[in-house]
Amino acid sequence: MAEPLLHLSGVHTHIGPYHILHGVDFAAPAGQLTMLLGRNGAGKTTTLRTIMGLWQASSGTIRFDGNDITKNGTPDIACAGIGYVPESMGIFAGLTVRENIVLAARSGPVDSARLDWMLGLFPALRRFWNLPAGNLSGGQKQMLAIARAIAEPRRLLLIDEPTKGLAPVMVRSMIEAFKALKEAGETILLVEQNFHAASVLGDTVIVMDDGRVVHSGIMSELVADKNLQRRLLGLSLDTHQ
């Protein structure tokens, strides 16, 4: 297995009086897509937000590329090469698709080759390039949110439930886009509730419950073990094709 690019060790997170993460430990290998699974309320989104510095870990250590980023601010974490796509997507609805991409490329204009690659992943964005992002469908907005995250090269992408609420045809398009990102060597930590998508895309998997990691391993092994699926997630992946 590849060396971990991201490593969480004993991470606890409190939000006000609430203790959300209880000693989270896991590693995300470089060049792989790691699935972060679990029931609603398991702590998956809190984990992403803690990595990104949007919520500060109360204790424990977060290491990225060998460096301790536990207490770093969100701008510094972003500058270190971590891109974040929240569940809310965070696009600017009143700006055009092009303007959203321009704003995301803080270092200057997006390289033409990189722009062609991005628009190849998400062809709909080329069609709506000069239209307000608020006019896009839910799936197209999600595509724009991911395109914004990769407008500049990133070492790690944190993506929260990109297929949530999407029609099956859009889910298939999203799966193909993630396959292409994997082939390009991107390292991705992906929260997902669509278990078919998880089974197709995941290299490694972490399962959370009640703010703790209850399982980590190879995604294909979880796919092959129906009893383990039911024990960890309360269902079988076979029922979510």
UniProtKB/TrEMBL annotation:
* Gene Ontology biological process terms in this record: L-amino acid transport
Q: Domain (ABC transporter): give its ranges.
A: 6-235
Q: Which GO terms describe its molecular function?
A: ATP binding; ATP hydrolysis activity; branched-chain amino acid transmembrane transporter activity
Keyword Oxidoreductase attached: no
**SMART domains per record:** AAA
Q: Which UniProt keywords apply?
A: Amino-acid transport, ATP-binding, Nucleotide-binding, Transport
Among InterPro entries, the record links this protein to: AAA+_ATPase, ABC_transporter-like_ATP-bd, ABC_transporter-like_CS, BCAA_Transport_ATP-bd_LivF, P-loop_NTPase
List the residue ranges forming a coiled coil, or say none.
Answer: none
Q: One matching Pfam family, short form?
A: ABC_tran
Question: Which family, according to UniProt?
Answer: Belongs to the ABC transporter superfamily.
**UniProt cross-references to PANTHER family, sorted A to Z:** ABC TRANSPORTER ATP-BINDING PROTEIN, HIGH-AFFINITY BRANCHED-CHAIN AMINO ACID TRANSPORT ATP-BINDING PROTEIN LIVF
Q: What is this protein called?
A: ATP-binding cassette domain-containing protein
Q: Which organism is it from?
A: Microvirga makkahensis
Taxonomic lineage of the native organism: Bacteria, Pseudomonadati, Pseudomonadota, Alphaproteobacteria, Hyphomicrobiales
